[in-house]
Structure formats: C-alpha cells, structure tokens
Amino acid sequence: MHNVDDNSLRSVELSLKMLTVFTQNELEQLLCLIYDPLSIIEILIMNTKLDKLSTVLDIVKPQVPYTEINDNRLSIEAIDELLRRYAEKTLDFDVITNPNPRLLRTPEHKLMQSLDSLNLDYDCHGFLMPDEVPLKEDWVPNSEVIECMRCQKVTFSMFNRRHHCRRCGRVICYNCSVHRMQVPSYGDILVRVCEDCYQQTMGSETSDPGDSMSTKSVINDFWLLSDDPEHNNIVREEFSYEHAPSVSLCLALMKYHSKTIEYPRFLLDQCKNMFELLLPSQEPTQEIDYFLVIKMLKSLTVAAKMSSIECNLPNGSSLADRILSQAELLSLLAERGCLNLLPITNTHNKEAYIDAPILRKLRDKLLEREQWNLALEVSTKAGLDNTGIFATWGKSCLKAGCLQLAREKFQRCLDRNIYSENLETATCEESTSNSVLKSRTMSRLSLLSICDCKPAKNPILLDEIINILESNMQNIDKEIIERADQQKLSGSVSTLNQSFNLSAQPDVAICILNKLKNLKSISAGQYCQPEHIKETNLNTPVMDKIFFDECVYYLTRYGSHLSLMEFYLRHGYFEKVLNYVLETQLSADIFIEIYMKCLKDGVINTFQEHMSIIDSSLEVWKVCNMF
Q1: Cis bond upstream, residue 245 (ω within 30)
Q2: How far apart are alpha carbons 555 and 116 in whole angstroms?
Q3: What is the CA radius of gyration of the chain?
Q4: What sign results for the dihedral spanned by CA atoms 249, 252, 256, 261?
Q5: Where does the FYVE-type domain lie (predicted)?
Q6: Residue 414 Cα distances to 408, 470, 493, angstroms
Q7: How far apart are CA 101 and CA 98, in angstroms?
Q8: Distance, CA of 341 to CA of 199 (rounded, Å)
Q9: H, E, C per residue of 490-521
Q10: Phi-psi region of 587 (alpha: psi -120 to 50; beta: other; left: phi over 0)
Q11: Do residues 154 and 139 make contact, with C-beta atoms less than 8 angstroms apart?
Q12: How far is Cα 591 from Cα 436, in angstroms, rounded to an integer?
C-alpha cells in the first residue's frame, strides 16, 4: 500500500509540473487527470499540440525512469508506446481496396446523376432519423458504399474520407457531417452526426443550450480525457486524425520517441504496411492515389533508413534500401499507367515485397503490350536477363518491316561469328584487286583460318527470324522502299548535324505501309498489281529482294555454313551455293551433304550444270573435296 501511495504522489508531482505550461481554461479541464500524467500527454498528442508536447516532455523525461510499461507509473517506455500508437493512426488509409462490383456505376449513370443534381436540390426531408440510436454493428459497412449516402455527389477516396453518422449509422462525407452533438450511448462526448440528424434533433431553435454545446469543440480541445475509464474508452474508440494519412505528422510525433531500435523498427513496419497497399489484391482501385502513396512511402523509408543507422538496427538500412528500390519500380509503373499490370499477389503471404517470379510475370505482360522500354527498365532494375526482351522486340520489328531497327535489337541477343567479319574484309580486298585469281587466293587465305568459327547449328532465334522473313510473301512497292531509303539518309545527316541529340530516328515499317497502300489502291478501285511488280514476279523468286537480302544478312552473320547454302538452294541460287563452297573451302562432308540434298529434291541435274559452268573439267571440285 505504501508503494501505491508513493506512485500516486509521484504521478501528482509530475502532473503538477506538466500543468504549469497550460492556460487557466485548460487547467480546469485537465485537473481531473492529476493522478494520470500519461493521459495529459495523450491529450496533447491527440490534439496535435506539438509545441506544448515538446515542452512537457522536456520537463518530464529527465525525471522518469526507463522501466517496463506499468499502468500505475509513467515511464519512457510508456511514452514511446503512446507515441507509436498514435503515429500509426496518422498513417491510417481509410479506403476500400475491394469494392463491391455492383456498386460501380457507369459513366452514363454518373452523367445523368450530375444533370439531376443541377435541376433538383437535395431534399433533406426525404430522410427520417431512426427512433433508436443504432449499435456500431448495425452501421452501414464502409465496403457497401462508394458515394456519400446523403448528398450522393462525393465519391470516397483518400482525400474524401468516409464518416459514419453516430445517430443514424449512414456513411457520409465530411461536408455532410460538420456538426457534432451528444448522442445517447456516447455519454457527454460530442460525436459526429450528419446534417439531417442534426437538423431533426436540434430543430430551428438557435438559442437552445444544445447549440452552444455543439460548438464546444470550436472553443476548446475536442479530444478530452477524464478520470472516467468508460468515457476514455469511448473517446479513444472515436478518435481519428482528420488529415490522415500524413507522413509529416507521423515523423513529427516520432521525433519525440527515444532513440532505441523500436524507433526504426516501427517506421519499417509502417513502410511494409504502406507497400502492401500498393500491391494489388485485385485490379487497382480508384480510391487510392498511387502517386501520392509512393511519395509517402519514399519519404517514410528514407526516415526509416536514417533512424536505422542512428539507432544501429541490424539489417535496417539494407531493408530500407530494398523498399526504396521497389518503390522506384512502382513509381515507374505508375508514371506509365501500367501499375494494373502488376500480378495480383497473395494477401496471406508474409513476404510483402515483389519477388523475382512476380517481376518475370510483369515483364511478360509488358512484352505482350509491346511496352519495350518499360520492360527493359523493369528487367534492369530487377536484375533479370534482357536477352528475351530484345529477341521479342526484334521479332515484332521484323514483322512490321522495321528492318534496321530489328537488326539493332537482334545484335544484342545473337552472337556474331568471326567469319562474317572476315568475309566483309575479304570482299573489300576482292573488289580492289584486278586479278580474279589473286582475289580468290587472298579470300581463301583469309578465310582458311576462320572457316571453322561458324556454328555447326543455327540458334533457335535465328531459325525463327528466317521463318518470319520467308513467310512474308509481300511485294514491297518501289515508292515505299525509296521512302525508307530517303528517311534512312536524312536520319544519318541529322545524326551528324545533331550528335548531341540521343533520340533515334524512327525506322520505316515497310510491311505496314505496303499493306496500307494496297488497301488505299483497293478502295480506289485499283485491283491489279503495278507493272513493275508483275515483272518482278516473272523474273525473280516469289520472295521480295529486300527480305531475301535480310535472310542472307542474318545467315551470314549468325548462321552455319549449311543453313546459308540450304537457303540459297530453296530459292534456286545454285551458283551462289557453289561459289560459297569455293570461297570458304568447306569440307567434303558439307559439300556431299549439299549434293545429297539436291539429289533428294530432284534438282541434281541443275546443280551439276552450274558446276560445269564454273569449271567444265570439274577439276576445281576435286580440289574442293581435298579440304
């Protein structure tokens, strides 16, 4: 009993010291808490009287011990726990992440509702206040309402928060619930009520004592505690910060927290909760301002990182860096309007962060939507391999006819063989020599050492590229090809004149342009092909020369000897096959394989004729078989 008296006296002593910073009117309200100094601090926190809170804590902290939280004693730990509890309330997001689909209204319905609101004023007499005050369990659930039930004009969001009328239980907006009054079952506490319930309760009497009572919160601190535990429970249950969520208010409160590991640990926990809000459990909801939440998350995470370093929280700084990195990723998606592509996460999973499987799914969705640059940025930030992105990007360019752009993309995912480089060098040497024999000898000498550098088998991607090109049976109009050449030339000149400009010139999508031109011709009644296309069809293979040259480019640069020669054979270029055999000095095995393919395809006679044209004695082919 002696210890209890000592604790009470100690509490009175601390309370009296704290009360010295309050005005006379405030003292009248706080004297009832003289045995409970922690409640005095709580009132300052609830009403965000931070200047007085700072003064009070400067007085109290040097005189209170570092002990475990005890209801009968004021301690540093008790103050810290109080600060954390209310700092968490400052980050309360009163939004519905899973709205009922039947509540979502069409734009047409909203337009009609807006027109009605211009012609008809709201009829406050259409609602009758219930006779009995509803229990909290009987209130209209937040999840069942997306618009104010009174004015039906305000759509709820992070900024237009939901409020419950304590008298009727409806969900209303701030503008429809500016009044507070005493309601049965809430004691003498002024609670929020809607405009309808207030008017029907107060009537038209402006001189009623209840009117002055309803404005009590304007003159004095609204959130007040007393020595009545039941009263205090109701106040704490009703309490919320009007301008939550607010990171600045959270950090302002936590500034008074002791510099222990609980400080950064609390901030990191709040970062995790905020991060979970950004991860969709279903399609992103319009109630959340994702840009604002991401900015709040970054600010809170930076503060958590600094406090982790200051308080020596193990792994706190690295965890904050991870959150910051993923917040940057979410910011990138939000800026591009692709946050809805983030795969829906399992809310029961304890791991709240974006892992590698989720990032891969996200990357694949971005590729489906041809968001190439964003997919690259996501892949780079996640540390994933970019090869697949460039391959898909290149194939898309190839199908559209952006041939130069496709080459640039495939360069990043195909290994260029040494043979193609030496072939270009040998070709240049051959063009500058007057002697055909000398040029062939030089070519053989330069290619002899690297003829084995070609792959034995084509990469799978290369086969896909050739298949795309060979399946394109369009005859490209000459005007489109000339237009592409002109744009390529102007792009080169522009690059020389403006080398500081990093933006690349767009490539011409010749396939798309060719189809559009054909459609225009058909719509104009021109159903016949132009003469130059008819002539081309008679004298050359079905495959257009521009696509044929692309195939040769890729096969020479990235393919095997056999694949290039088989391509020539498919399109009837026997002479090119034979010249290639001589220039590269291929082994007898490859030559025999080509010979057998011609025999199998029934074109051996034509093949032999071209062999005889090159050398009627066929002696050169004996030499070839020696290699």
Answers
A1: yes
A2: 69
A3: 40
A4: positive
A5: 142-202
A6: 10, 19, 29
A7: 9
A8: 48
A9: HHHHHHHHCCCCCCCCCCCCHHHHHHHHHHHH
A10: beta
A11: no
A12: 23
Q: Tell how far CA 43 is from the center of its chain.
A: 41
Cα–Cα distance measured from residue 189 to residue 235, given in angstroms and rounded to the nearest whole number: 7
Query: Long-range contacts: 312-321, Cβ < 8 Å, 24+?
Result: 312/261, 313/261, 313/264, 313/265, 313/268, 316/261, 316/264, 316/265, 316/268, 319/268, 320/268, 320/271
Q: Which pair of structure tokens corresponds to residue 416?
A: 């260029």
| Distance between first and last Cα of the chain | 110
Give per-residue burial for 607-616: e unless 16+ CB within 10 Å, then b.
Answer: beeebeeeee
Interval 161-200: pLDDT, tens = 889 999 999 999 989 988 988 898 888 888 899 999 999 9
> What are the start-end ranges of the E strands in 366-468?
none
Angle at 16 between CA 11 and CA 19, to 5 degrees: 125
pLDDT band at 525 (very low <50, low <70, confident <90, very high): low
pLDDT tens column, 8-41: 888 888 888 888 888 888 888 888 888 889 999 9
Domain boundaries, the chain: 1-94, 102-238, 259-384, 560-627
* Sign of the alpha-carbon torsion through 534, 535, 539, 545: negative
How far is residue 554's CA from residue 411's CA, in Å, rounded to a whole number? 10
Question: How many C-beta neighbours within 10 Å does residue 2 have?
Answer: 6
Average pLDDT over residues 64-79: 71
Lookup: tokens for 511 = 């396939």
Hey, what amino acid is at 103? L
Give Cα separations from 240 to 191, 192, 294 (angstroms): 12, 12, 23
Distances (CA, A) of 241 to 39, 86, 236, 245, 314: 17, 9, 11, 8, 32
Give one word for 337, left, alpha or beta, with left for phi > 0 and alpha for psi -120 to 50: left
**CA 201, 206, 210, 216: dihedral to nearest 10 degrees?**
120
**CB-based burial, 146-185: b 16+ in 10 Å, e otherwise:** bbbbbeeebebbbebbbbbbbbbbbbbbeebbebbbbbee
- The DSSP output letter for 542 is S
The DSSP element (H or E) to which 99 belongs, if any, is none
What is d(CA 388, CA 3) in angstroms, rounded to the nearest whole number? Answer: 74
d(CA 152, CA 172): 9
C-alpha to C-alpha distance for 277 and 304, rounded to whole angstroms: 18
Secondary structure in 3-state letters for 136-178? HHHCCCHHHCCECCCCCCCECCCCCCCEECCCCCCEECCCCCC
Lowest mean pLDDT, pick from 154-163, 301-310, 409-418: 409-418
Q: What are phi and psi of 497, to 5 degrees?
A: -75, -30
Q: Which fold has domain 102-238?
A: Herpes Virus-1 (3.30.40)
Q: How many residues does the chain have?
A: 627
Q: Report helix angle 356-368 to 387-400, nearest 10.
A: 10
CA dihedral 510, 515, 516, 520 (to 10 degrees): 130
* Closest alpha carbon to 627 in 424, 421, 449, 422: 449
